[in-house]
Amino acid sequence: MSDETSDFGTSDVAPGDEGAEAGVGTYLVGLGLALLLTGVSFFIARTHLVWAPSIPVALIVLAIAQMGVHLVFFLHITTGPDNVNNVMALAFGVLIVLLLLTGSLWIMWHLNHNMMPMDQLMRMQR
Amino acid sequence: MSATHADPHRLGHGARSLGGGIPSKRIVVGYGFWIFLLSDIIMFSAFFASYAVLSNATAGGPSGKQLFDLTNVGIETMCLLLSSFTCGLAGIGARKESNLMFQASMAATFVLGAVFLALEIREFAGLVAQGAGPARSAFLTAFFTLVGCHGLHVTAGLMWLLTMMAQVFAKGYRPDILRRVMCFSLFWHALDIIWVALFSVVYLIGVSQ
Predict the structure, then answer these.
(1) From CA A71, how far away is CA B199, in angstroms rounded?
(2) Which of B16, B46, B50 sits opposite A10 (nearest CB)?
(3) I want to staple A93 with a disulfide (CB 3.0 to 4.6 A). Which of A126, B38, B91, B136 is the partner?
(4) Confidence (pLDDT) at B13
């Protein structure tokens, strides 16, 4: 265990570890940005000032932006050279998530679209 | 030689990584936990996909617009956001080996997480009481599964948090304990990220439709 004293300060960085010595300031900036984005999201969802069909898209964009803020300021996933492995793993995760979401929605939407409405189906089975 | 056999990848020895050497155990552990978190997020995305598919399948029952209370969700969001911040402070406290900063921040994180959980349980109880339980419609089944799964994660996180406070109290800032604290902090931040997707997709879009 004695040789683990230099657990910090290597040329690679674990997720969640600040590369350079960043302190409370990073978290404060992250908290401020996250609060701002959350506030805008809640405002948009309730207001009537915004064109209604654009609201879901705006909410999703704001959510993705806020997740980015959390990743950078809270989890310290950055584009620095010491963070390549973490970013690659994240990119793979995002790829799978996108495939899963778009794939499910796409297939299920077409299935709904091409299926006979449920009440007609029930009538035919009688 | 015997040490090499017991630890073939020399994980316990890699103190520095110079020019492609073996990275320190903290980096290996953090990376492994990061991959677990990503797979956890992939599991959540499957629940999100099923919720999105079923969100209109209300079977004549109440829709999200009639059920969701945005004030409650706003308070829950504040709690998780602030708890993410205090969790970051706890991480700084652990690295500075400052008992006051670490234990106070962890306690604040626990309180905020517990308030979040209490509000969520109250919301669920209210829904079930007005006949909108998970058995009412496919929409509500997907809703309870998705939000409840996040709630279970928060519950597990709160228990982990108490364990970390106790371990640091009893054993001090040993490298292995610090690695556990780092993993906990990653877990807690990831829960907050999932909650961001959750309140946007489920509550805000549900209410604005």
Answers:
(1) 17
(2) B16
(3) B38
(4) 47
**pLDDT over 90 for what percent of chain B?**
76
**Separation of alpha carbons B29 and B155, rounded Å:** 23
For chain B, domains (ranges, CATH) are 41-208 (1.20.120.80)
Instruction: Give the contacts of B120 (CB within 8 A, at least 6 positions apart).
Output: B76, B147, B151, B154
Least confident of A20-29, B23-32, B116-125: A20-29
B69: nearest Cα among B114, B116, B119, B115: B119
Give the single-character DSSP code of B22. P
Predicted confidence (pLDDT) per residue in A104-114, tens digit: 999 988 887 77
**Which chain A residues are Cβ-neighbours of B89 within 8 angstroms?**
24, 27
* Predicted local distance difference test score (pLDDT) of residue A59: 93
Residues of A in contact with B52 (CB under 8 A): 101, 104-105
At A52-65, the pLDDT tens digits run: 888 999 999 999 99
- Using an 8 Å Cβ cutoff, are B143 and B62 in contact? no
Other Cβ atoms closer than 10 A to B202: 22
> Residue B165 in contact with residue B103, Cβ under 8 Å?
yes
